[in-house]
Amino acid sequence: MNSFIHLTIPARAEFIDIVRLTLFGIANKAGFSYEEIEDMKVAVTEACTNVVLHAYSNAQPGVIDLSFELEHNGITIRIKDEGSSFKYKPADSKAATLHDKELSEVTAGGLGLFMMHALMDKVEVFSERGTEVILTKLFGRKEEMA
């Protein structure tokens, strides 16, 4: 049976720690290793930071809706905003080519999607009304198998 946990926070940097603590509690209870939890925390922090920096203007403060779904084979984390839509394809193609670049060539903020892909087993991005990032981590999945 799948378990769902929902969390809504203001889209402000000082609330991202609440997401990290919630994720730690859920993932620890589910049986993920310390390293897997740390990887997930980095990926989720990147996704939430993107919302804080890019989704809402200062005049229009918004929220980040998160859901954590525990499944028999892992966890799926959804990070959703209702702000300015994010153009996924161009950023994704840049992320895919980072292995050919020197760190000095990568633009600020250009590592977020790359890191999410490197740390999680599956990353999906939908940008219709706002943006939704869906991150999946499977139990016992070793990096060399990904």
From TrEMBL:
Domain of life per record: Bacteria
InterPro entries registered for this protein in UniProt: Anti-sigma-factor_SerPK (IPR050267), HATPase_C_sf (IPR036890), HATPase_dom (IPR003594)
EC number: 2.7.11.1
UniProt GO MF annotations: protein serine/threonine kinase activity
Residue span(s) of domain Histidine kinase/HSP90-like ATPase: 9-137
The protein's enzyme class: transferase
Record key words, sorted: Kinase, Serine/threonine-protein kinase, Transferase
Protein name: Serine/threonine-protein kinase RsbW
Taxonomic source organism: Paenibacillus endophyticus
